[in-house]
Every structure is written in structure tokens, then in C-alpha cells.
Amino acid sequence: MLNRGGRVPDVMLVDADGNPVALSMLTGRPLVLFFYPKDDTPGCTMEACSFRDAYQSFVDAGAEVIGVSSDSADSHARFRGKHRLPYRLFSDPGGRARRAFGVPKTLGILPGRATFVIGADGAILYAFNSQFQPERHVANALQALRFPA
Description:
Layout: E1 12-15, E2 20-22, E3 31-35, H1 42-53, H2 55-60, E4 64-69, H3 73-82, E5 88-91, H4 96-101, E6 114-118, E7 124-129, H5 136-146
Parallel strand pairs: 3-4, 4-5
Antiparallel strand pairs: 1-2, 1-5, 3-6, 6-7
């Protein structure tokens, strides 16, 4: 998994409207990029809604929040609408971005859950990997934004 000081790989993602977006186009301000396994599963919904509930704190810290999974753009649009998510969701068809960031699988089969806090210059400031503690991703990311090492 990419760690602090690493550079963000330039990969293509697809937004919830089906538009391709290069990750390099999202730099220029701090970015919180979280990978999650699947839309509308209990842990992923908890994590997504935790980011939603803390969204203003991320905005106040000058950061953009983006969620990424392999689900389709249509699935993301439904998930975003159902849970009133104020941030963008991107589809990672085939898991290319997940592999580029080195997000490990859980138990060798489940897509991993990881969060990266990225500086405006594209350098990783913080990386956290925990499949079974989805609620910690938000607190850890906010801490990393507020008190960068």
C-alpha cells in the first residue's frame, strides 16, 4: 500500500455520471480519497454516511472528499442519492486504481477498505487501511488534515 511521502498514481476513474476523470485533475487542494468494497453494504454505508456527516469539517479544512469502489456509475448514483452523500463517488472498473494504490484485499478475496489523505501537490500525507473499523477512517483523516506530520 502506498504510504506517506508516496506520489499519487495518475489513474482514470469514472464518476457517478459516467464521465472519465483522471486523478491528476483532482489535485491542487487536499484530497481525502477513500476506497470501500461495495455500495449499500452495512460497513460501507456506515463509512460513507460518516464521511457525509463530517463533510463540512473536511470542507472547512480545505479538502475534497472522494469515495471509490468497483461499483458501476449507476450504482454510485443510486447510493449517493439514497444516502444524500454530498461528495463525489468514482467507479474503478477492474480495480485499476485500487491496485495502483496498493490497497490490499481482506482475507485474500474481499476488496480492501483504505483511506488516503493527499496534499495539494499530490503527495500522500497519510494512509490508513482497516476493513473492520470503517468509522475510524473519518476521524483519522480529519486528524491528518488538521495536524499534518
